[in-house]
Amino acid sequence: MSMRVLVGVKRVIDYAVKVRVKPDKMGVVTDGVKHSMNPFDEIAVEEAIRLKEKKIVKEVVAVSCGPTQSQETIRTALAMGCDRGIHVEITGKEYENLQPFHVSKILAKIAKEEDVDMVILGKQAIDGDNNQTGQMTAAVLDWPQATFASEVKKNNGDLTVTREVDGGLETINVKLPAVITTDLRLNEPRYATLPNIMKAKKKPIAKKTVADYDVDISPRQEVLSVEDPPVREAGSKIIGNTV
Amino acid sequence: MIRGVISKLGKGGVSLKNYKCFQRQSLTTEWLYPSYKQPGVSFSTSTCCGSKDLELTSVRYNVERGNYSKVTEADIAEFAKIVPNRLVTDADEIAGYNTDWLRIVKGASQVLLKPKTTKEVSAILKHCNNRHLAVVPQGGNTGLVGGSVPVFDEIIISTQLMNNIISLDDLSGTLVCQSGCVLESLDNYVSEKGFIFPLDLGAKGSCHIGGNVSTNAGGLRLLRYGSLHGSVLGVEAVLADGRVIDCLSTLRKDNTGYDMKQMFIGSEGTLGMVTAVSVLCPTRPKACNVAFLGCTNFADVLSTFKSAKGMLGEILSAFEFLDHQCIEVVEQHLDGVKSPLETDYPFYVLIETSGSNAEHDEEKLNQFLESVMSKGTVQDGTVATDMTKIKAIWGLRERIAEALLHDGYCYKYDISLPINKIYDLVEVMRNRLEKTAVRSVGYGHLGDGNLHYNTTSREFNKDLYGQIEPFIFEWTAQHKGSISAEHGMGFMKKNYMRYSKSEGAFDLMTQMKQLMDPNGILNPYKTLPKQY
Fold this sequence. Notes:
Chain A is of the alpha/beta class.
């Protein structure tokens, strides 16, 4: 098999960090805050590597759109086992205004250019919680989509995907090429081993800009205000007999 | 001077319970330490040990009760006046305070007091001293040598409700708080202001700072920040007769006479009950990395340590080691905890770096890793930079003690040795106990020369116990080690002090106890052998 897979890896504020709103209420504090790979993207990387280990896939390409530091996230994906990376550098105001709508167009362009058979993305990023990029990418490409995957199996030329839906599991067949988004139970991502971390340093990362893909990333929406969630009030104890 | 502190405790404190930022933090760590959460309550019956009722300490170790009075109705009435509604006499409720989470000791106290202020502690002790009633101060009850649990009917004075933070100096990082503050809450509190608490240990979710100070707890950050004898700037303690000793200085330097606060650090509540402390908190490092490495023999672990000191120097914040038997016990008994490495190795090393610049640190760490890999002292490993993985790897190390309990009964030894001898002891003991013990494991703070040697059996076995002690202490003394590196003497180790202390030092300790607690009411049967 000579399939090629594209995985999206977003750099987000670390899951364990307490997020703070900026004093001007126009966003959250990111300077000096620990970042890591979006956990759902980690699952996407793991799934792609497993397909490679099963010899179903020949090459895994990791892509990230964002500031220079996004390369660290790509490096992490390479250390886990991806073959090469593509960094689409988007910084400052442009990055702040970047939406799933823009990212999906960039991803679709790359998918075409790299001639991939499958795009695996996290079902959502834990910073924006949009849950849109995968669906939009499939729409732009006009490919079938299998979202919220908890199991992916190759079945001749098709994929059999188990999806986590309200009230249970749904199993569907999709034709390739296709877009898959990962749910939490799909797999448990591995730790990158030292020899692989060393090897990853030598793997290539192509540096690109939005202009290379001819995508318009002018903002489609405007942030009016970012607020802290309301503070939960302390409960009170109800004294009485339980039934 | 004394009054000043008491009034501060009464008013200005910030109650931890109302401190909103803990909600998220505690959620993320709760799963790490489930069994510490309610010492003795949630798993005192059958969850992990499978044994029936625990034998009383006084019966198992054949202890004779000291010549103390027994609590009367009049005493209870007096206590009710001092701590209204915070006096517990219900046996079920006291049960958890009468035993430890390791289930190695059990007392028979019938009275539990929960003071909120230094003044109340003082009034309690004054009454007890006059009446010749023995007491045991108790914090989070996470100790490992039975130091915080009564042996007979000592009155338990819990610091549970003394949990106010009094002040934090933004500039110097000096934190002043009451002794019942939970360690993890303090670390969360100071981290909001950009500081780190200089002490960190596995039981952080429930241990109290008063207990930490009283036992001079060591833990995971000692390598970087030193012992509590250095980072504690001040202590307020109440003596047996109720006198409040105010040494609650916030000064870094203070050479006016004898440094009396040191007497309360590590004396396990036998010289006075700690009611408040001031601690110097360093600036919180911005970048943190954790590496988990596999080594084929102990010589390689030592050589890795040497390289780490040379190449990571100022950013090295922990160097822990564990043997494969530790991984086995953790994987066998705890759900969802497993080694991040695919292959098994006889030894593992956990290295943590903390610094101010993530890029610099990473570069240093990478150079170090490349060097030890190319030398072949490290066979394999992984590096964690995101918090989830960092916590998972630390969890592997911190939960060994918890996993061992699932074997049945755990015999714990906490030994200081010259670093090159540190693992010899494990091998000697493993051979010696091969036929009787379920397993023998060695892990610990290699950077501090501190070994935790643990062995387990299905249930408490007197023969096995006799094979371990006093042999292990004799061996340690022969090799110029200390029989208690950081756990203290408590009840379990008190009779073996002479293996590590000279006669002169021992005599002076006895005189000190005489002077500060002439009636011997403070935490009797602990720390010192003989009549105390």
